[in-house]
Each structure stands twice: as structure tokens, then as C-alpha cells.
UniProtKB/TrEMBL annotation:
Keywords: Membrane, Transmembrane, Transmembrane helix. Pfam families: DUF7305, PilX_N. The chain crosses the membrane at residues 20-41. Residues 285-396 form the DUF7305 domain. It comes from Evansella cellulosilytica (strain ATCC 21833 / DSM 2522 / FERM P-1141 / JCM 9156 / N-4) (Bacillus cellulosilyticus). It comes from the Bacteria. Residues 462-484 are annotated as: Disordered. This is Uncharacterized protein. Residues 15-65 form the Type 4 fimbrial biogenesis protein PilX N-terminal domain. InterPro entries: DUF7305 (IPR055729), PilX_N_dom (IPR025746). Residues 471-484 have a biased composition (Polar residues).
């Protein structure tokens, strides 16, 4: 009984309860205080990060605007290279107000895209460890009516020489000829009789003695040339900086070899810089040039075609930059169409432009075919056997030889520093401009054809309008700013 009373007494004793309640309250308040401090600190940290993040974005955007203003200040320059510099390039802007003691900066790069005349500016805004990226694309279209240095070719001019024109055998010219020379015998015709030149004959003067011909040759009376013809080569372009493609398939260490098993065919669809491209064993390298407004660029140190072929697919364009060696062995085909439709032939030919800066003679023989235009910086050119070339030929070399049964639709063969020599039964359809011209053989023909001035724009920018004014450019924002 006593034990039961003691338990009851103990259970009903309320002494010390206040202390327990106070201790519980202190613990609860401490937990709440610590939690509140943690939340506050987190919020402060997040707010600081958001502030820096937003500031980095504004710095990146400012870098874009600064670079755009710099471009606009150069719009009166004569070329895109002078306006935006060599590509890709990088500029660092650091003249911003410090943020919380930290110096912000914007790293701005500009590069080409795969669209003609479209460029991309990328700006990275940095504040401490925070960075944001802003991108924008723009175009630099030329204002209507402006141009670079044009090339003027008189209507119906089949052959023009800065010095002499010599025709032997049964060579015939369907069109006019001209020379700025007035020296006796500057135009010499030998061999068969008849109407060997169907058009007008323009000379520098001395109408009575400048032409030497046998009595059986009938010609129109010569005329003194009225215009001043100072044919100079257009500027040879700087080759673009392009990335080396990754290894894979027939690509190894910057070299592409199509031919050996298992790569008897290969399709490539990127801008790239190769060390060597080899296509052999009657195989084909296919280059996807993309959509109508796309422009593929491939730079290669050495291109060797050994009975190999290059085919273009798509509606875009390809510019091929060849630095050192460009060799043909046997029969090769580049960008060939078998259509007889002249409009389709023109469209296919306009898709390809080649720039060759090597010093070794370019020899195109066999039954090789090329549909495209080429600018040869220094080397000589030899088109022989049954090879055919369709497109403009711009040559800075000393000699251009066309021989054998070669049939060429060259549009414009522009070689103001070279002797152009035709032999065999070779033929040219278009206009030949040379330092000297000589033809000797049976069945040689030069047939003038009207020139599409726009097709010369990649080499002579002024020929889209025929205007000799200094080019000016517009700046057009292509897309809104893209923030990453």
C-alpha cells in the first residue's frame, strides 16, 4: 500500500515543469533561428549569383554592340576583309566599370557561316567565375550599283592580245579580234585562205601595215581601237582559316584518301582544311554543298586526282582552295553534268570556283572534264588530249596551252600576262584575253559567246553592275540576339 501511494505522489508532483518547458522552447527557437539564418544566407548567395549572372549577360551584350559599331565605322572600306579583318578573329573589351571590385570583360569573336555573306559574332561576358554567351548573325550586302574593279570585254570580242595575234594552218575565229599594238605584222595570218576572222579587227594604229596576210584571206578593214584596255589580274584571295576534320573513315591526320577498300566512295559535307586529298581507282568523292544559299569551303594543301572524280550534290556552292599541288593523272571528272540544257550547264558550272596558288603547271589531259571556274595564281596551264573545261579560267601564269582535240567552253579565258597557244584541233568557246595569242593547226576554232557578267563576280566583283565606283556595304542584322 505504501509503494502505491509513493508512485501516485511522484506522478502528481509538478515541481520543475517550468524548467523543462523553458528548455524545450529554447531548443525550438534555436532551430528556427539557425534555419532562418541558413535561408537568409542562401538567398543572399543566390541573389549575388543572379546579379553576377545578369551582369555577365549585359557585358556580353555590350561586347556585341561595341563590335557592331566598330564594323559599321569601316563600311566605307573596299572589301569585307578590310571591314571585319581576317577570319576567325578575337577582340577583348575590358573598359567596363568594375562590379564589386571585379573587372568585367567581353571576349568577342567573329567568323563566317555556311551562308554566303552571313557572319556570326559570339560574345562571352565574364565577371569573376560567371560567364554568359550572346550570339548574333549579320550580313554585309553591297549597296545596289557599287562594285570592285570590273573587267570590260567589248561585245563580240573573241580574241584580244596586248601584243601579237598569229594564226596559221586553218585556224578560224568566229568573232572580232583586237590588239593595242600598232607595230607592223602585229596580226599575222598564214596558211589557208577564206574568211578566217568573221568579226571586226581592232588595232592600236598603223592601219596599213599592222596586218600581214596572204591574198587569199579575206578580212574586214581594220579599225583603230577606241578604248584604253588595261587588263590587270584581280586580287588573289587570302585563303580562309578552316579546321582540320576529325579522324574517321577515309580521313586520317588531316588526309583524305578515297579509293582503297573499303572507301571506294565517300561523302563529305563540312567546311574543312585538309593536308592532302587523293581520289583514285575510278572512285568518287562526293561533296554535299547544302541548300541554295549555302557556301561550302574546302582548303587543301595538295589535291591529287588519279582517275578519280569529285561530284557535288545539293544546290549550294563550293569554293576549293588549293595551296601547293593540283595534279591530274589519266581521266578525271569534277562536277560534271551530262545535260545538254545550257541553263542547267550554267547552273552546275556556277556552283564551283577553284583557287590554285601552287607553282607547278596544271596539266589536264586524257578525257578529263571540269565544270567550274578556276583562278590560277602563278602556274602555267596545259589542257590537252580530249580534255574539256567549262567555266572561266583566270590565269596569272606565263603560258596557257590548249592542244589535241580539247573542246572548251571557257566563257572567259583571262590571261593578261601569258602567251595563249592553241594547237592540234582544239577549240574554245568564249573570249580569250592574253599577252600574246598564237594558233597553229587544222580545225582550231575560237567562237565568241556572250558573257554572263554575274558569273564573273567571284573574281571581278564589279561585273555585277559594270560600275567602277568604290564599293560600299550595308550592315543588316540577320537574326535577333541569341542568349546562352
Amino acid at each position: 500500500m505504501k509503494l502505491s501511494l509513493d508512485v501516485k505522489k511522484y506522478m502528481t508532483n509538478e515541481k520543475g515543469i517550468t524548467l523543462i518547458l523553458v528548455l524545450i522552447l529554447i531548443v525550438v527557437m534555436s532551430v528556427l533561428t539557425v534555419s532562418l539564418i541558413g535561408v537568409t544566407a542562401t538567398n543572399l548567395k543566390v541573389s549575388s549569383g543572379e546579379r553576377d549572372n545578369q551582369s555577365a549577360y549585359y557585358i556580353a551584350e555590350s561586347g556585341i554592340n561595341l563590335h557592331i559599331n566598330s564594323i559599321k565605322e569601316n563600311l566605307d572600306k573596299e572589301s569585307v576583309d578590310e571591314i571585319i579583318g581576317p577570319l576567325p578573329n578575337e577582340t577583348i573589351y575590358s573598359n567596363f566599370e568594375p562590379q564589386q571590385g571585379i573587372e568585367p570583360r567581353a571576349i568577342v569573336t567573329i567568323d563566317e557561316t555556311n551562308m554566303d555573306g552571313v557572319y556570326k559574332i559570339t560574345s562571352i561576358g565574364e565577371i569573376g567565375n560567371r560567364s554568359r554567351v550572346v550570339e548574333v548573325t549579320f550580313t554585309l550586302p553591297m549597296s545596289e550599283g557599287e562594285s570592285g574593279p570590273p573587267i570590260f570585254i567589248p561585245s563580240d570580242m573573241a580574241v584580244f592580245s596586248n601584243s601579237t595575234i598569229k594564226l596559221d594552218g586553218s585556224t578560224s575565229i568566229n568573232g572580232s579580234v583586237g590588239t593595242v599594238s600598232d607595230n607592223p605584222g602585229s596580226i599575222t595570218i598564214a596558211g589557208g585562205g577564206g574568211n578566217r576572222i568573221t568579226g571586226d579587227i581592232f588595232v592600236g594604229g598603223n592601219l596599213n601595215n599592222v596586218i600581214s596576210k596572204p591574198n587569199g584571206v579575206t578580212l574586214r578593214d581594220p579599225k583603230v581601237i577606241q578604248n584604253s584596255f588595261d587588263y590587270t589580274l584581280p586580287q588573289f584571295p587570302n585563303f580562309p582559316e578552316l579546321t582540320t576534320p576529325a579522324n574517321g573513315g577515309p580521313i586520317s591526320n588531316g588526309n583524305l584518301h578515297v579509293g582503297p577498300w573499303p572507301f571506294q566512295g565517300y561523302t563529305f559535307s563540312e567546311d574543312a582544311h585538309f593536308n592532302t586529298i587523293i581520289v583514285d581507282s575510278n572512285t568518287t568523292l562526293t561533296i554535299d554543298v547544302g541548300g541554295e544559299n549555302e557556301h561550302r569551303k574546302i582548303r587543301v594543301n595538295n589535291l591529287h586526282l588519279r582517275q578519280g572524280h569529285i561530284r557535288l550534290v545539293g544546290e549550294g556552292k563550293l569554293t576549293l582552295y588549293i595551296e601547293n599541288q593540283f595534279t591530274f593523272q589519266s581521266t578525271n571528272r569534277i562536277n560534271v553534268t551530262h545535260s545538254g540544257d545550257q541553263n542547267e550547264i550554267k547552273d552546275v558550272t556556277d556552283q564551283l570556283n577553284i583557287f590554285y596558288s601552287g607553282s607547278n603547271k596544271l596539266e589536264v589531259g586524257g578525257q578529263s572534264q571540269i565544270f567550274g571556274s578556276i583562278y590560277i595564281n602563278h602556274a602555267d596551264l596545259d589542257i590537252g588530249a580530249s580534255a574539256t573545261f567549262t567555266g572561266h579560267i583566270i590565269s596569272g601564269g606565263n603560258k596557257v596551252e590548249i592542244s589535241g582535240d580539247s573542246k572548251n567552253n571557257t566563257r572567259v579565258l583571262f590571261a593578261p600576262l601569258a602567251k595563249v597557244e592553241m594547237t592540234g584541233s582544239s577549240q574554245v568557246r568564249g573570249t580569250i584575253i592574253s599577252k600574246e595569242y598564237e594558233a597553229s593547226g587544222g580545225g582550231i576554232r575560237v567562237d565568241y559567246q556572250e558573257i554572263d557578267q554575274d558569273s564573273l563576280i567571284p573574281f571581278f566583283p564589279g561585273n555585277g553592275s559594270g560600275d567602277e565606283e568604290t564599293p560600299t556595304f550595308n550592315f543588316e542584322l540577320q537574326t535577333p540576339t541569341v542568349e546562352k
